[in-house]
Amino acid sequence: xxxxxxxxxxxxxxxxxxxxxxxxxxxxxxxxxxxxxxxxxxxxxxxxxxxxxxxxxxxxxxxxxxxxxxxxxxxxxxxxxxxxxxxxxxxxxxxxxxxxxxxxxxxxxxxxxxxxxxxxxxxxxxxxxxxxxxxxxxxxxxxxxxxxxxxxxxxxxxxxxxxxxxxxxxxxxxxxxxxxxxxxxxxxxxxxxxxxxxxxxxxxxxxxxxxxxx
Length: 214
Hints:
The chain has one domain. It contains 6 helices and no strands. It has helices at 3-51, 58-79, 95-130, 143-173, 176-183, 188-204. The radius of gyration is 22 Å and the shape is globular.
């Protein structure tokens, strides 16, 4: 690997590390928002049932929350290779062919969401300029949830670009292992390792492990 390529690889690795931290923070915030939404929905149901009164706006805010959290989760799924892919052709190819196919798939994904991001930004700019509000009792300025949604997709697109560039370097250098770790299909061993890590974490939390008191 020549010095320029090595420098670029290290820069992309650092960028991906930062993006991973941003994605992880977004997932935690999204999880918190979903928890609040679940509690608010429960309170709404009880209020309607027991008091014949609606808190109002829960369904609208819930829709915004799900849209933004879904976009945030896509970045985490991309970084962890958790998107569902059909590997009929993938499994019949050698390591080099698999890496090239992974690059093509990621490039297509990046191109598609580049279009989504473009039109999302145009919609955001239009609604911000017009001061558009939702036609609900809350009259929410639509640019607020749309800005969060576009921001989440922008992070997703940046992650896709960084992964594509880093993987292209890996292909050029014949580093198939790195390419597979970044954008390849998850193997059975990866799934088992993740399951084991989740089980070990659950066992370490008081009250969630096996009951050994008997």
